[in-house]
Amino acid sequence: MSTTYKNSKTKKEYSKTKKEYSKTKKEYSKTKNEFSKTKNDFSTTFMNKSSVNSLDFNYNDIESKLKDRKCKTKEDCFDIGECDTKSGMCKFKDIYCTRESCFQDNGCNMSYVKNARPQYLKTCERNTVRIFETCHPEINNSTCVTRECVAHEQCLSHKCYYNRCVTNEKNPIYYCSNIDSGNELSCKLILNEPCTKNEDCFSNHCGAISKENKDISICLEPSSQSCNIVAFFLTNLVVIVSLLSLYYCYKRVKKSKHY
């Protein structure tokens, strides 16, 4: 076989390989563009779908706007609270706010899910429009999960990282309610948000992110110590009320015997 023939064959094979590479590169570019288009379409659809559901408040003004809100019907509570007919005051709960906007948990596609592992999700919780729960980026995926996100806009924190909504120090999330605080609305940080003291958190528990990493403090589940104190107080209260009731009954019985 001549050298000229070999070179010609090699040249043809090289040319064929180059064309195949060019074709593969074009297909990859097409796939990448399609993915980008899909992501953009999702963002557009998401924004159109969710913008009408945001409340006319944000973290900076919701407390003053909803404080001591009197009512006769639910309509007096902006249709986001319940009217307590006994007190004539609005009761609000399940409202999540950032410095930009507030949303109310609807229990489905715009909600906070404490245990967001797929096997525990309701059908309507899977098709998310806005994800309220977050994880601190320093907590690994096996310890903390949220529902899957594909765009920043899908997370209330506005930060989607490796398909997980993570905390955003520039956009912290607060839970707002006046169910347990009289008529005064209280907004405090949700679980996993960075904090400096217990009073910052709705759980009233700000602690180290882990035993190994005590430099970062986040809002944690209510401490067992706090729960034990409450339980102890309630138990003693029941005992005291019971003893007073028995003493009152004893006095009445003793008094009736004199007549």
How many strand segments? 12
For the biggest β-sheet, the strand order reads 4-3-9-10
Largest sheet: 4 strands, antiparallel
Figure out the total of helices: 4
In percent, how much strand structure appears in the residues? 5-15%
Identify the notable features of this structure and list them briefly:
259 residues; alpha+beta; 2 domains; 4-stranded antiparallel beta sheet; two-stranded antiparallel ribbon; 4 helices; 35% helix; 13% strand
Concise synopsis of the structure shown:
Helix content is 35%, strand content 13%.
Describe the model.
This protein is α+β, with helices and mostly antiparallel strands. The protein has two domains: 54-222, no CATH class; 224-259. The protein is 35% helix and 13% strand. The protein contains four helices and twelve strands; from the N terminus they run ααβββββαβββββββα. The strands form five sheets. A four-stranded antiparallel beta sheet has the order 4-3-9-10, with no helix packed on it. The longest helix is centred in the N-terminal third of the chain and has 48 residues, at 3-50. The model is unreliable at 41-52 and 225-235 (pLDDT under 50).
